[in-house]
Amino acid sequence: MASAQIVDVTARDGFQNIADWIPTDVKTAVLDQLVAAGVKRLEATSFVSPKAVPQLADASKIVNHMATRHPDVETHVLAPNLRGARDAVQAGAGRINYVISVSREHNRANINRTHEESLRDLASIIDALPKPEITVSLATVFGCPFAGRVPTADTVALAEKVASLGVRSVILADTIGVANPRQVRGVLRDFRAALPQLAVRLHLHDTHGMGLANMLAAMEEGFFAFETATGGLGGCPFAPGAAGNTATEDAVNMLHRMGIDTGINLAALLEVVKTLRENLAVPLPGRFSVARGFQEFCFYDV
Ligand code: ZN
After folding, report:
1. Measured between alpha carbons, how far is 192 from 90 in angstroms, rounded to an integer?
2. Contact at 8 Å (CB) between 27 and 9?
3. pLDDT > 90? residue 302
4. pLDDT range class, residue 290, cuts 50, 70, 90
5. Of 158, 172, 193, 221, which has the highest C-beta tally within 10 A?
6. What percent of the chain has pLDDT over 90?
7. Is 236 a known active-site residue?
């Protein structure tokens, strides 16, 4: 049976966009439920300045929770700089996600750095902390709110520099959710041809309702690793009110119906959506959870 890899980013990408404080025990309850639903890979938190993102000020506690309660789960954390990466390692994190935007304008606006500064910082993390596995998230691959179109050649050039530092795994992110399936095919073909050695995950936002279509296009090109957020959390800061990440439950529903295994139990995943709905005062743009009453029309075993 074919299979796809889902990395659920609810607790990082989803929660970081929510202003009202989410108690740590609600966060860990969501993580526990995700694991109980069969999620084997997730991004749990981010080691950013608590001044910049107060919501994730409990990052060390979250990592400790994952390390002690779920040592078998592949837990990723985001770290925007060497200081964050050090804190993450100190808390017990073994997998760090470092972000650079392909668009220089976005990199400047998002993390206030040039590409050169970002790459130098990445090199210093790799030098200082040889142990954690580092994945680099390349943001704005499919479009930038400042620069508009982002040439694939720019993505490849940046990824080559990242790979030359020893990184073996990258995330290609449609940060603002403007990709279309034809574009996804083209970008992935060119990327694979240039850098066949890199492991690639796709992070596809659903801002324009094309998240699942883009996922399908990626699979048709042979890419089967995706980052999604339960409930579709993770709105785009440049488009208030817009849908967020492709919803994990929508992705799992599509994949299972297509006969592609994820190892995730869809009914148990809907319980996570329920917990999110009960505890967060934000809309959940995912579709399948809303259509729950129509499950009798799904002629397959969830
Ligand atoms: Zn996202």
Report:
1. 35
2. no
3. no
4. confident
5. 172
6. 87
7. yes
Q: What's the gap in Å between 267 CA and the centre of ligand 1?
A: 24
Distances (CA, A) of 57 to 4, 89, 139: 32, 16, 23
- Residue 14 confidence (pLDDT): 96
Identify the CA nearest to 142 among candidates 133, 151, 134: 151
Q: Which of 11, 6, 21 has the alpha carbon at shortest distance from 59?
A: 11
Secondary structure of residue 267 in the 3-state scheme: helix
- CA Rg value for the chain: 18
Q: What is the pLDDT of residue 299?
A: 58
Q: How far is the CA of 171 from the centre of ligand 1 (A)?
A: 11
DSSP per position, 52-114:
T-GGGTTHHHHHHHHHHH-TTSEEEEE-SSHHHHHHHHHHT--EEEEEEESSHHHHHHHHS--
Alpha carbon 188 to chain centroid, angstroms = 17
From the CA of 295, how far away is ligand 1's center (Å)?
28
